[in-house]
Design brief:
Blueprint (H helix, E strand, L loop, with lengths): L11 E3 L9 H5 L5 E5 L7 E5 L10 H5 L5 E3 L12 H12 L8
Antiparallel strand pairs: 1-4, 2-3
């Protein structure tokens, strides 16, 4: 059970003050929910963003692999997660091939 209660109707969220933009969570996400976006004021010039929250499958791979404990996934009792679709798998692969950056619209 999660120690942090999810914001209402939010499957996954990031504590930006803890995140060092290492992109480990993005690389672990099988559904392409996360991506790196430009953030000129951050140390590395980029930051994690939840770009497709409705695609989150609740696997918690991002949360479990974050070295800074900066990303959280809602408890299954608090949120109804999506199923992993072919479209989500393709988006995840495209994000990885785009150096973990957010895809252009």
């Amino acid at each position: 059970m999660s120690l942090v209660k999810a914001p209402q109707d939010t499957p996954v969220w990031v504590n930006i003050s803890r995140c060092k933009a290492c992109d480990v969570c993005v690389s672990m996400c099988p559904a392409g929910v996360l991506a790196m976006v430009a953030a000129p004021s951050s140390t590395l010039g980029s930051m994690i963003e939840v770009v497709e929250p409705d695609a989150c499958i609740g696997c918690r791979d991002c949360e479990l692999h974050c070295p800074d404990f900066a990303i959280y996934v809602a408890d299954r009792k608090e949120y109804k997660f999506s199923k992993l679709t072919d479209q989500a798998k393709e988006r995840a692969e495209a994000v990885k091939n785009n150096k973990f950056r957010k895809l252009s619209a």
